[in-house]
Design goal:
Layout lengths: L1 H50 L25 E6 L3 E8 L12 E8 L2 H21 L1
Antiparallel strand pairs: 1-2, 2-3
């Protein structure tokens, strides 16, 4: 009889242990899903905010203020990349693992095209000066 009672107590403790373990596992999964959604919202909000910060030529005004932290405590990363005719803004969160350029990163980009008018104006002025100099010789 005592052995039956011990078996039932063991089984009860085992079931309770499994239940508590599953509770904590699912709580973490649900909590991480909430953090991921908050992180995506935060990165989207910042890329939209920074995409509106442009100068009179349509180029990005580089943000130099304090950056917010993602739900895991890492600061957002902001990067600007300029080419001949475009400038790309990238806002990145390193995600739960805290390591940049891994699959859990949350990244949003925006690209602006530069005004070609200034480039054409400079080229035309250079060509005109070249013609003038050639005619003077």
């Amino acid at each position: 009889m005592n052995e039956d009672r011990s078996a039932w107590v063991f089984l009860l403790l085992f079931v309770l242990g499994v239940g508590v373990g599953l509770y904590f596992l699912f709580s973490r999964i649900i909590n991480d899903n909430g953090r991921v959604k908050e992180n995506q919202r935060q990165v989207s909000e910042w890329v939209e905010k920074l995409d509106e910060m442009v100068d009179e030529n349509g180029l990005y005004k580089h943000y130099t203020g304090e950056l917010p932290t993602d739900p895991w405590g890492s600061k957002l990363n902001i990067h600007y990349r300029k080419t001949n005719h475009t400038e790309t803004l990238t806002v990145r969160s390193v995600g739960r693992d805290g390591i940049m350029f891994t699959k859990d990163d949350v990244v949003e980009k925006r690209t602006r095209f530069h005004s070609l008018g200034d480039h054409l104006k400079d080229a035309a002025q250079g060509a005109t000066q070249g013609v003038r100099q050639g005619l003077r010789k």
